[in-house]
Amino acid sequence: MAVFKVKFILGIIVGALVAFPLAHNLGAGKHVFSNPLEEKSLMDRTMDLASDISTKTGKSFDESMSDIKKAINDATK
Description:
2 domains, 0% strand, 3 helices, mainly alpha
């Protein structure tokens, strides 16, 4: 009975160590076995934001990207 408890607890620990990074990648829309701690570059995040804005507002991607660049330029003056 004690051996069963040790195996059970060890299985829960190993399962959690494997499942949490995989679930994080799935939730973030990444490949399952990619690095869960990797951060996206600023350009990738800006491209994603422009894509989201263009789908919500109906503007083209280039118009959305130019609006974002203009806002970033104004904010960093």
